[in-house]
Design a protein that fits this description.
The chain is α/β, with parallel strands linked by helices and 341 residues long. It is 50% helix and 19% strand.
């Protein structure tokens, strides 16, 4: 073979090789990212909706855009119960829900519906992020779920359309929407309310049509869900502290590579801090907003809170067996230690 021809052949082969390498690089770049469906019931502009968007951003960043979270807020994928079932079946990947519907699967989660469990957010954080909180999360895999961590739903407060509630007796006869679990039902029935379990996604319409008189939720939820439009009375009762459980589908999570699992776990941890801070600021902002929109605000006095505690004491004692005596006493002891009592 002549030298000139040989050079042409070498150049041609080199070009083909480079072209092949280029094609491989393009192919790698063009691989579709893993899409992760994340459904939730709250509004997208709520503090927790914003935290969900933050989670999506962190996942994209940590995975170098190889994992993409697609959020579906405002109950677009259904109520909490449906979201939980979608994770169990494998048709969804990520969600956050209140502990109340989880208690239908794992009764011990009902401990968070007991009244006046935590004095403040600091105590709640210590218990949830400590051994007692982990014990509960460790029960989830057996049900097809992974508990990544706890976010904050917050202290719940009562609104209604009938009259001011500032005393225990004022609760009597109020048709009050409660979360769908036995603990919430038992507590509010014990306080004299006509407690009606109902999915959150149906709540605004029920309030608007007077199917129910009132409801109980954290302040930022009351604002962002626009309950104040049909609920002129607010009571700062802080009667229950409710966490959100940040959940993943176990079937899906188990199929991830270790690197992908690390991304989800780290993004959940980062977003927990973001969410709690946003939620707490959101509650402060919400109270100011609600007052500016002519919502009449009342509070229980120390004496009235003590009456409520006394009223529900036998109910709580009776619920210990249903929830799990060991869980209730463990959480109460952890809360007492965290509060320095």
């Amino acid at each position: 073979m002549k030298m000139k021809t040989l050079k042409k052949t070498v150049v041609g082969l080199t070009a083909v090789a480079l072209l092949g390498m280029g094609s491989a690089a393009v192919w790698a770049k063009d691989i579709k990212p893993r899409i992760i469906r994340f459904g939730y019931g709250l509004a997208d502009d709520s503090p927790t909706g914003k935290a969900s968007a933050h989670f999506a951003e962190v996942v994209s960043k940590l995975s170098d855009d190889k994992m993409k979270v697609k959020t579906f807020g405002n109950g677009a994928l259904g109520p909490d119960e449906q979201l939980i079932n979608s994770l169990i079946s494998g048709s969804g990947e990520i969600t956050f829900v209140s502990t109340a519907p989880i208690a239908s699967l794992i009764p011990e989660f009902g401990v968070f519906d007991l009244p006046f469990l935590f004095d403040n957010e600091k105590v709640a954080d210590a218990v949830l992020d400590g051994p007692e909180g982990k014990k509960l999360l460790d029960k989830l895999p057996a049900k097809g779920l992974i508990g990544l961590n706890y976010w904050e739903n917050g202290f719940r407060n009562i609104t209604n359309s009938r009259h001011e509630i500032s005393k225990l007796d004022d609760i009597g006869g109020i048709k009050l929407r409660v979360m769908q679990n036995q603990v919430a039902l038992s507590v509010f029935k014990g306080l004299g309310a006509n407690a009606i379990p109902m999915p959150f996604t149906e709540l605004f319409t029920a309030l608007e049509t007077k199917t129910v008189d009132g409801q109980e939720n954290p302040l930022s939820t009351i604002q962002t869900s626009k309950f104040y439009e049909v609920q002129p009375y607010l009571t700062l009762s802080n009667h229950v502290y409710t966490p959100f459980v940040f959940l993943a589908c176990k079937k899906w999570f188990d199929q991830l590579s270790q690197d992908e699992k690390d991304v989800i776990v780290q993004a959940a941890k980062d977003s927990q801090e973001f969410q709690r801070k946003a939620r707490r600021q959101g509650n402060e902002d919400a109270l100011k907003y609600l007052k500016e929109h002519n919502v009449k605000v009342a509070e229980f006095s120390t004496e009235e809170k003590e009456k409520i505690r006394e009223k529900v004491a036998p109910i709580v004692e009776g619920l210990k067996a249903k929830i799990g005596k060991e869980t209730v006493e463990g959480v109460l002891e952890a809360a007492k230690k965290a509060s320095g009592a």
